[in-house]
Amino acid sequence: MLKVGDSLNGDRIKQLRQKKRMSISEVAEKAGVAKSYLSSIERNIQTNPSIQFIEKISQVLGVSAIDIIEGHEITDEVELDQDWVELMKEAISSGITKEQFKEYVEFHKWRQKE
């Protein structure tokens, strides 16, 4: 978590923005922040943005503020080992539909929260 005296590496925000294929102008407009300020953050000229700024940017980029602050690795890709591949093939061949599988995943997420 950012504390007094800590700084944020703006490269992280820039990487996330580029991964989303968004321009600085687009992110700034959607987040309701100044383009020049966002640019100065990305270039590490400004290194101590407010939590409100980080929250606005994180919402536009589709990540949590904590992910930006702590620099968590964000990836949409999941590597499947051979066991997962075989399990998915077996599920498909047994007639499980994508919708049924999605329902199971949602149920499992709900059960973990309870």
Summarize the entry for a quick read.
The chain has 114 residues and is an all-alpha fold. It is built from seven helices and no strands.
Number of domains: 2
Structural class: mainly alpha
Number of strands: 0
CATH uppermost class of the largest domain: Mainly Alpha
What string, H for helix and E for strand, traces the elements in order?
Answer: HHHHHHH
The Cα radius of gyration reads 19 Å
The name of the CATH superfamily of the largest domain reads lambda repressor-like DNA-binding domains
CATH topology of the largest domain: 434 Repressor (Amino-terminal Domain)
Helix content: 55-70%
Strand content: under 5%
The main β sheet shows up as: none
Give an overview of the whole structure:
The protein has seven helices and no strands. It is an all-alpha fold and 114 residues long. 62% of the residues lie in helices and 0% in strands. The chain folds into two domains: 10-70, lambda repressor-like DNA-binding domains (434 Repressor (Amino-terminal Domain), Orthogonal Bundle), CATH 1.10.260.40; 82-113. Residues 1-6 have low confidence and may be disordered. It is elongated, with a radius of gyration of 19 Å. Helix 2 (24-31) crosses helix 4.
List the SSEs and their pairings.
Elements: H1 10-19, H2 24-31, H3 35-42, H4 51-61, H5 65-70, H6 82-93, H7 98-113
Helix pairs in contact: 2-4
